[in-house]
Amino acid sequence: MTELATRLDTPALDVAALREEFPILAREVHGKPLVYLDNAATSQTPRRVIEAFSNYYAGYNANIHRGLHTLADEATAAFEGTRETVRGFLNAGDSREIIFTRGTTEAINLVANAWGRDNLRPGDEVLVSRLEHHSNIVPWQLLASQLGIVVKVIPVDTRGVLDLDAYRGLFSERTRLVAVNHVSNAFGTVNPVKEMASIAHAHGALILIDGAQAAPHQVVDVRDIDADFYAFSGHKVYGPTGVGVLYGKAALLEAMPPWQGGGEMIQTVSFEAPTTFAAIPHKFEAGTPAIAEVIALGEALRWLEGVGVEAIGAWEAQLLEVATQRVLRIDGLRILGTAPRKASVLSFVVDGAHAQDIGLLIDQLGVAIRTGHHCAQPLLAQFGVDATCRASFAAYNTLEEVEIFAAALERVIGMVR
């Protein structure tokens, strides 16, 4: 363990005991103990979440809301129980403001297609930061090509920090929406979304926040932020894939038309009269939802809150600090994203070595990291690269794993340069 690691505070959580809750962490990869550092893409899942998923299919597998039998009642109660869990997790004012989606991407597309198509006119502006994941860029570009709106880019500096002065200067009388992430998936930059929301509202614009990378690492209070829309994904908060959340202020959701049509989202359907729609949130949840995934998401959030989001964030900050200092000792390695406020993402390039080669070789040593453009091509282009290596940390990672990662990285770099 490094000298810096020994000087750090003892974590407020029992990491060794916590690791026992994750079955996958006991496996080996290529004969080496798994060191999983790809958490920004997908976090691992504790046993109780896996059991919540399987228990639905084993014990009360039924469709929800309209059934009158016992299994349907039990499934509906568990499903709607998650809605209330999410409401508390985000400190939303009303569970009707919580819509279940397939993930952050679908949540953003829902806003773009329901709110955007109903409210945006040719020449209207949407502000999008250069830090965004493609899922918070492409939907607005599609509307630009189809509706004639204008997408304006909020710049970032050489540290990967959003330029707030430039942001203020982008507003005009045609600005209708700001679409920005809470935390950058590529660099880990934590954006000042509360201040950005205040600025947007002062100009009569709404703000949509991509919270996929924030929800696992810090307490999110949508009312304190004054977010109009906020989205996150289940598989980044120790839950299952294929499920996510859109929070929206009730008044906005009520005024928005449905995005998809089908079962569940209607009140009445007739060929003789206009179809009428269900109240929120069901107006935006057409068809049979991902019932087991939603139930398991609720268990994941209860697990996360039980461990303590603040304690997890503090521990991850220690891991990031140690990892940063450790890899900076490697000759030719350059970190991209040096914002003073970061979540647990370490993105870097190495002179004379391709990111893909590093990722493939370090996997042979049991270490899982992410390589590529991280669905953030405009951001990486500003820094003159088309790919980085990205190590990202979660509650169950250890200082010993940081050292294993750094030693493996040194060994791999020596092989490829």
TrEMBL record:
The keyword Transmembrane helix does not apply. Its cofactor is pyridoxal 5'-phosphate. This is cysteine desulfurase. Pfam families: Aminotran_5. Belongs to the class-V pyridoxal-phosphate-dependent aminotransferase family. Csd subfamily. The keyword Metal-binding does not apply. It is an enzyme of class 2 (transferase). Transmembrane segments: none annotated. Its EC number is 2.8.1.7. It catalyses: (sulfur carrier)-H + L-cysteine = (sulfur carrier)-SH + L-alanine. It comes from Franzmannia qiaohouensis. Residues 35-405 form the Aminotransferase class V domain. InterPro entries: Aminotrans_V_dom, Cys_dSase_SufS, PyrdxlP-dep_Trfase, PyrdxlP-dep_Trfase_major, PyrdxlP-dep_Trfase_small. Coiled coil: none annotated.
